[in-house]
Amino acid sequence: KHQKKRFFDVVHSLILATDMSKHTELVKRIKDNLSDSESYNPLSTHEGVDLTLSIALKCADISNQARPWRVANRWNDYVYREFYAEGDNDRQAGRKVPPLFDRESN
Q1: How many CA atoms lie within 13 A of 36 on its CB side?
Q2: What is the pLDDT of residue 37?
Q3: If both were cysteines, with which of 25, 33, 65, 97 could 87 make a disulfide (CB 3.0 to 4.6 Å apart)?
């Protein structure tokens, strides 16, 4: 039971690591932990493991712009299609549409 909870906690923290509204908080956690780099072992605690996994996923999540323009632009189009579809669903359900998901204003 403990492993199942731990698994869901890790997945939850990884999902949040890809949320750009949490970017500054994640960068602060990284800097705070690395400021004592002589003694810091990120794999010695659950928090350290979570942070290490969050960094890896964050890098993968935002790495698209490092690809060749043709590939990056194509993926960018796919991402915006997904965002706009979600915004359309929000609008249709009467929910507030986040600015990034609003095809009418973005």
Answers
A1: 7
A2: 67
A3: 97
d(CA 93, CA 101): 14
99: left (phi over 0), alpha (psi -120 to 50) or beta: alpha
Tell me the C-alpha distance between 29 and 23, whole Å.
10
∠ at Cα 67 (84, 99), nearest 5°?
Answer: 20
The closest alpha carbon to 23, from 57, 72, 74, belongs to 57
In whole angstroms, give the CA distance from residue 34 to residue 19.
Answer: 22
Q: Within a 10 A sphere around the Cβ of 10, how many other Cβ atoms?
A: 15
* Amino acid at position 19, single letter: D
Amino acid making up residue 98:
P
Residue that wins the pLDDT comparison between 39 and 1: 1
Structure tokens at 61: 């999540």
Q: Would you say 103 and 87 are in contact if contact means Cβ atoms under 8 Å apart?
A: yes
